Amino acid sequence: MKRIYAKEEYCLGCKLCEVYCVTSHSASKDIIKAHKLESITPRLIIESSDNLSFALQCRHCDEADCTRACITGAMQKDEETGVVNYDEERCVGCWTCIMACSFGVIRREQAGKKVIAKCDLCIEEEAPACVTNCPNDALVLAERAEEEGVQ
Amino acid sequence: MSYLIIGNSAAGIGAVEGIREVDTEGEITLISDEPYHSYSRPLISYYLAGKVEEEGMKYRPDDFYEQHQVKTKLGKKVVSVNEAEQQVTLESGEQLEYQQLLLATGGTPFIPPIKEADKKNIYTFIKLDEAKEIASKVEELQLERAVILGAGLIGLKAAEALRQLGVEVTVIELANQVLSAILDEEAAALVQQHLEEQGIEFIFEDTIEEFLGIAEVEGVKLKSGKELRSQLAIIAVGVRPNVELATGTEIEIEQGIVVNQKQQTNIEGIYAAGDVCQGPNPLQNENTVVPIWPNAYNQGLIAGKNMAGESAEYQQNFPRNSIGFFGLSMITAGLIKPEDDSYELLISKCEESKCYQKIVLKDNQIVGFIRLNDVDRAGILTGLLKEGADISKVKSELLSDSFGYISFDEEWRQAKISE
User: Domain spanning B2-107+240-307: which CATH class is it, in words?
Assistant: First the structure.
């Protein structure tokens, strides 16, 4: 399956990935309204220091610790798409997945219901918003390297 | 191949999924003494508090058993295992044969000796039926006061739920702190303070000696001599492996049913997983019972794969918990109270905001941590602990707010995230 890979040498630290992630996950899908009127938790994490930055999203692991730790069964890996997704209705905000995820890419939803927030690869769209809107190709959507080797 | 699974909670369901990853045709029978579709045990406190409905507690979709071609016998109790004949006997007298057997019978609440404990309205709190009974008692009695024996995970989740229903709750605990299995004294003091602010009362270093009342409980008498009025009591001092079915067989039992990393018992074709088993603990180099949900599911999954002929090992049988009370969250893992000074401790604390972080190191490896009221990205620590990673290069950053993948060198980071 395709995953998002960060190329830290190209990342400018502009945070446009975060801006468009928020917009993509808003109800309005409008960049201004999403930020001014809605309270959307970014589905990615930007790590940055003085001279280095990169964005991290859910790795959609094949053997995902989060799905196996989830106490309600809300977190599941979709067999067809490979996307690790969660059912907001069944998530109770126990944060067991946050305990389990060694990438630290599952967030707590900052507003509204006590649930998690994480990357869904913008599966309904053509490509993830963070990748499409990165101005310097520091985020790419690609097949995993070893899988490419096999093909 | 024919598989028999006894138990319908996390370990049993994990086993079904593990078997079906390998063997799509073998016959799976799953038996449970509870009459329900698989449900999330940890949600019973949410149910009691009215935060989830029974329907919302299902751990898997309605058609799970059908999809996985599982024949279920729910509400049926297995009373004995005959490992020589490879068969089990149900309470009804019915006998079932198996080629591969999984014991996923969970735990049984430990009941300490207390006088007059046969009165009504005294409960334990690990199953849905108990949560249902307690919920209806709260209404029926117009419950005003309850006592809970035990300030562990189960006792405090019960206390939180009852308090949210407006009940006056007193928690009685033999130790001198709350959550002694997962928190050190400092973190426990902050959690206790938070619970007290919500109106929960605590009595430490004491226990219930006798239940008072005639047919129904009306109060408790403590060892210290103190008496408390209470119309309902919950006993939550711990859960022991439910090894009943293995007793009297050749299956090896210590505290739990002894298993190896493949979840195999000493008897060929018999596996155990979840709260009933005692498996290799990578942090202690010995076999321990680690009754937590993620272990139960993973152990079931591993057992299932092995039962179906694949070779899989479980290497994460160590304690880790994520829990919260009245909005105060905590994630803790591994060894949190080291017993000697061969360990290095990194600690940061902010009493006002009830934040506390502790990382326990041994030879530059993380062997335990506590993250109180700041749980974000705690899984990075879990990952480092699991891996036994050498953290000497990032030690000075472990407690920092900005700690993350950026703290490591590029090679380490890329090896992880370019996977």
Answer: alpha beta
